[in-house]
Design goal:
Blueprint (H helix, E strand, L loop, with lengths): L6 H17 L4 H6 L5 H17 L18 H13 L7 H14 L2 H12 L5 E4 L15 E5 L2 E8 L10 E7 L10 E7 L5 E6 L8 E12 L3 E2 L5 H12 L4 H19 L2 H4 L4 H27 L6 H25 L17 H9 L9 H12 L6
Parallel strand pairs: 1-4
Antiparallel strand pairs: 2-3, 3-7, 4-5, 5-8, 6-7
Helix pairs in contact: 1-4, 4-8, 4-10, 5-6, 5-7, 8-10, 8-11, 10-11, 11-12, 11-13
Length: 391
């Protein structure tokens, strides 16, 4: 497998970096890192950035031109994801581009593709994924939210939890049970849900890092047109599995990890005591840097397989497992180097690096849980990759 980039891909990288440099304020990277950017400022900048990306057809690069893309290779999309994450770019295609759009392309009708894909590519819709329930997290096939067919509509009742971005989304990608008598891996279907439909209630949940991006979504007698069913009824589990592979395969953790390690190295150079009081710090930073470089190859293997016409499965789980656990190790290294003051939040006069690593450490706790726990990923790697039996 060739991990080198073509001259065209390198030119795209430089063009994207120049675009981001022109769009983002000079101090954006640090202010966003330490949590000084307010919600309104971020939303306005995201609107401007998305407008420029949509004009260039960069929001959905690999999609066909008729749907708003450039028919670019998967590797070019991965480069976009890498550089935008490294720059802490607000906006972007989000869940709509990452897995909802590809699922609609693979399983949706021509009418559905023509309706929703261009809107995603133009940044007109913001999506939230409605999979997890209070009693169905890692075992996602156990979902109980019910979608009952009534004429030309489905009536949906149930509760979804930890729905990222649902507070700002106008569209939902919903998995619901359409045949409660079927085995749990069957009888599930996927739907497009307008989030402003009567009966949809979104309640923000604050996590231990003080972030409000997760939500509980209640669905009470919500009516969805039957035409919003994507794919065959009762075959939704297999579509969910495909979208989870896409969710797990990102380059983002490596790009974010690289930027955070660079910040730690710069802080250690500025404050010699960080190294003197911890003689093994140099080795620990070197270990994290090497692991991050390995992670890039692990993550880039996924789009390379896609570009060859293959469907990654266990490879996506390897990338997700490696990236999420590396995120935690980088956060732990940061806390050890910064010492007790690293635990202080932004606003404290004694906080190190603006209190950013305190927040990063708390946020990293969820890295090995979201999009499938590390235990789930190891099971998938064992079964799908190594051919080991269940047990």
């Amino acid at each position: 497998m060739d991990f080198s980039f073509t001259p065209d891909e390198e030119r795209f990288r430089e063009e994207l970096k120049a675009f981001l440099a022109g769009q983002l304020p000079e101090d954006w990277d640090f202010r966003d890192f330490v949590g000084e950017v307010g919600k309104d400022e971020r939303a306005e900048l995201a609107r401007v950035v998305n407008g420029g990306l949509a004009d260039r057809r960069w929001l959905a690069l690999p999609w066909a031109e008729e749907y708003g893309g450039l028919a670019a290779g998967q590797l070019q999309q991965a480069i976009f994801n890498e550089e935008s994450t490294y720059a802490r770019m607000p906006g972007g295609g989000g869940q709509g581009v990452a897995w909802v759009g590809p699922a609609i392309q693979q399983f949706g009708s021509q009418e559905q593709q023509a309706l929703w894909l261009p809107r995603i590519a133009r940044g007109e819709d913001t999506w939230s994924t409605l999979y997890t329930e209070p009693g169905a997290g890692s075992d996602l096939a156990s979902i109980q939210t019910r979608a009952e067919r009534q004429g030309d509509e489905y009536v949906v009742n149930g509760t979804k939890i930890f729905a990222a971005g649902a507070q700002d989304a106008n569209m939902g990608w919903l998995a619901a049970r359409t045949d409660p008598s079927a085995p749990k891996h069957r009888g599930i279907s996927t739907f497009v849900l307008p989030m402003d439909a009567p009966g949809v209630t979104v309640r923000p949940l604050e996590d231990m890092a003080g972030q409000g991006n997760l939500n509980e979504v209640s669905l009470e007698n919500v009516r969805i047109p039957a035409r919003n069913l994507v794919g065959a009824e009762n075959r939704g589990w297999y579509q969910v599995a495909e979208t989870l592979n896409l969710e797990r395969s990102g380059i983002g953790p490596m790009a974010a990890g690289k930027r955070n390690l660079e910040r730690l190295v710069a802080a250690a150079r500025d404050e010699a005591s960080m190294i003197s009081r911890n003689p093994t710090a140099r080795y620990e930073l070197a270990d994290r840097w090497i692991e991050m470089q390995v992670g890039y190859n692990v993550a880039y293997r996924v789009p390379l397989l896609q570009q060859d016409g293959l469907t990654p499965n266990h490879e996506a789980s390897v990338s997700k497992l490696y990236g999420s656990e590396l995120t935690q190790r980088i956060a732990q290294t940061g806390m050890r180097l910064l010492g007790p003051a690293g635990q202080l939040d932004a606003g404290s006069a004694y906080a190190k690096m603006g209190g950013a690593f305190s927040r990063l450490y708390l946020e990293a706790t969820a890295a090995t849980i979201t999009a499938g726990t590390s235990e789930v990923q190891r099971n998938l790697i064992a079964q799908k990759g190594l051919g080991l039996p269940r047990g």
